[in-house]
Amino acid sequence: MSGAPPVPAASESVSESSESFMAREIAEIPEAAAPLCAAWPEAERAAAALRGRAFPFAVVCGRGSSGHAGVHLRYLIETRLGLPVSASAPSVVTGYGRPPRMEGALFVTISQSGRSPDLVAATRAAREGGALTLALLNDAASPAAQAADLVLPIGAGPERAVAATKTVVNSLVAGAALVAHWAGDGALARGLAALPPRLSAALALDWGAWAADLADAPAAFVTGRGLGLGPVREIALKLAETLRLPALGYSAAELRHGPRAAIAAATPVLALRQDDPLAEGIDALVADLRQAALRVHACGGPGGSLPWLAPGHPACDPIAMLVPAYRAIEREARRRGLDPDAPVGLTKVTETL
């Protein structure tokens, strides 16, 4: 960017003395997620309360990173259980004062702190309106926990960086574990059991080539589809809050519509591709963008240009893809002289109405 300070090369090493809380918490992800990945009794207890109930629909409530975990959970519930899922609009309750009718529905709140007044109010209104309320929280003693019928504690431990990382991964894993138990999905359960070593291996992957392309970019795009859409939006958020870089996360299907016109040589695209029935469409998009001489960094598949692992479970791979993306963003922030632990204008607990 014109007038910006010079940015060191992407391959430049990061000294131990300058390690951020964000970097430490990214490194803690495999250990934090491991208890949730195999025979997690909390998920079985929550799933037991859901099995056998004929919910007409489900609603997922969350903002920011928690909302992105909710997108991933939506795809899992709809594909594994055939239950339609909607996203909550808490302002309908807090701003317009019109709680929706929720009789017999499942209402899932996802929050790291469990303290934002709008999420608490929406959870309370859903419960009063006849929904069974379930909260996925890092703070099991929070107001959101008290407002819910059931609590699934994600157990990520303390997180000091404002930019959430291990709590996001644990929220995603907790949702997947819940669905694996609820649906009796053995393949998903096996994918989760294999996830901790894959998260550890992902820590060693260097996505510096993508980060280097972000250095002079006025904006960036992140794309994927289906089970990858939640992580796609999460990475875009991290680019915005940690690098102050306008970033947009789009479904690969949506990107082919209006947003495609905004992609230029100066706006790099990161594509996440899991090995499932939607992979072919992502591969085709990557090929088309490269044919147009645009800068595309792809993770997974025959068009993959970033370091990645052998394909794993398609619901779990997009979770693991967050790890090298987080590492690249954290390092790029410090190369720019930004503090990844304290993005400007943000606080750890965001309270909205």
Automatic annotation (TrEMBL):
Keywords: Aminotransferase, Repeat, Transferase. The keyword Repeat applies. The keyword Iron-sulfur does not apply. It is an enzyme of class 2 (transferase). It comes from the Bacteria. Residues 46-197, 210-353 form the SIS domain. GO terms for biological process: carbohydrate derivative metabolic process. One of its GO terms (molecular function) is glutamine-fructose-6-phosphate transaminase (isomerizing) activity. Its EC number is 2.6.1.16. Pfam families: SIS (PF01380). PANTHER family: AMINOTRANSFERASE-RELATED, GLUCOSAMINE--FRUCTOSE-6-PHOSPHATE AMINOTRANSFERASE, ISOMERIZING. This is Glutamine--fructose-6-phosphate aminotransferase [isomerizing]. It comes from Methylobacterium dankookense.
